[in-house]
Amino acid sequence: MRNLLTLILCLLVPAASANEAAIRKALGPALGGTKIEAVQPAAIPGLFEVRVSGPDGPQLLYSDPQGNFVLEGILFDTRSGRNLTEERLRKFNAISFASLPLALAVKVQRGNGRRVLAVFSDPYCPACKQFEKSLVQIDDITIYYYMYPVIRPELAEHSKAVWCAPDRAKAWIDLALHGKPITAKAKCEVPMEKMLELGKSLRVNSTPTIILATGERLRGGLPPDQMRSVLDEAMKEAAASAKAK
What is the pTM of this model? Predict the structure, then answer.
């Protein structure tokens, strides 16, 4: 049995390599010089995942074995309800959570804080406000907010005032969730430019952008129950990864 499996693998590897070569040859010119980073079989038999370099980081395309046809879109597993494309992109776009400069973030903690995440958020972003309504329903959480006032930069003073407030966590929740800004002008040194530079370096181009404990990112918020499950799974993966090192 072991010899049979070895033989099958030996036959499959050259075939996969031939498909990759054909796909690269066909799609290279068609993509106008866009760099093809990797080619590998997708979850659907006969379909190949093609990872390319995009302006906002890795992107996924799907191709037939010869590279004659290419698809751009979402590969969804109806059996498990999983967005396979999103899952793959989250892995490719992951960073080291430990590399984040948490000193630049506004820290909000509830309960024991065991669920950890970082969020790039604009207090005047409608999706961010909706996400705040989800987060407030999740207990035992620690949120590191990177204030990212890009939607209405003329109101960036409101975010700066949060940084200078005696209780930053309360000031942020008042602003981002309840829409109650501090009217007084900020009277301390605010590292706003560093926050914006951090976001640009991580290719954050929408808010909210969520970074999980695994370093994987999500664009846009999730309902409370789904977000809680995602956070719990990320904490398990991060713990297992740390233990394996």
Answer: 0.80
